[in-house]
UniProtKB/TrEMBL annotation:
Domain of life: Bacteria
Keywords, alphabetical: Membrane, Transmembrane, Transmembrane helix
Record protein name field: Uncharacterized protein
Pfam families: TPR_19 (PF14559)
InterPro entries: TMTC_O-mannosyl-trnsfr (IPR052943), TPR-like_helical_dom_sf (IPR011990)
Lineage: Bacteria, Bacillati, Actinomycetota, Actinomycetes, Propionibacteriales
TM annotation in the entry: 221-237, 243-266, 287-309, 315-337
Amino acid sequence: MPTEEVWHGIHLYELGRYAEARRVAAQLLASEPEDPTALRLLAHCQLNLNQTDEALKAANRLVAAEPGDGEGHRLASVALQRLHQRTEAHRAAASAVRLEPLDAANHVQLALTAQPLRGHRREARAAAARAVQLAPHDADAHFATGFTARRGTTRRAAYRRALALDPAHSGAGNNLQVARGRTVRLNSLVRGYLSVLEHDPSYETAQRNLVALTYRFVRRYYWSGVVLVLLGIGLSAEPRSDWWPAAPLVAVVALAVGTWYAAHTWRQLPVGPRHFLLAAWRSRTHLVATTLHTAALLVCALVLLTVPVPSVARVATLAVTPLIWLNLALFAWALVLRPRR
């Protein structure tokens, strides 16, 4: 029977005060090292505090204290999964299901650990379906369904169902944006990731994906700038007409269209996302270097268009060509350093 101190720790945990609840669990374990309730509370707190190694130790102690308790195996599986020990995590989740087959959380964990393993996709989908059968109103069960689904429409529907049951479900919110992918505008994806971070500001996966969108914005503007640079340099070497300045006119029109496109894309973003993307851009030297170098090339291209002597323009074009290759190298460098989702 849980003591008053245990209930106090559980209450702190439910309030999200994980550090305080962990201290209560540690104090209880100081007097009773094998208390399963205190070990269970300690493992949960450490997982929420991202103390994965310590959580795994607590989960293993819980398994040793109560070998027939499926929750201990499930907590160990969660910790092993975070430590990227996929095979061991799957084995622990399977043990949890074997010990407590009517616990939907065990089937959810089995689905999440089986999906990344080759040859276990069918097992993952079956576990997710069983979790939904056992707990149809559990957001985690529908999240597992989306995580293991083969079709994009099924994934998106499952994640939306999970969010309808729990709007603060960070995993479902993040994965829904990933599943939407290129089917929606970048602006919509940015808003979606920011909505996830409003519920959980410390969710690293959504932060990383939002930074990845910054690279997509830079890439969009970059190729617009490169097209204008090549157009300007190419037209600068063409013969000029004294009565019809075709090359400068084409360049001005192209520059106007490119500027409108960039401004239109930027204006669609709310103020908050703009500040985030600008901060992410400024904090990455390779992005700043690529952007400034492209802007300098664009200025060079426009200047070449104003040179009245075609022969001089052609010589200048040859001089600028190595800078174009350097610019492409900078862009490739930026792509290599971009975060992975």
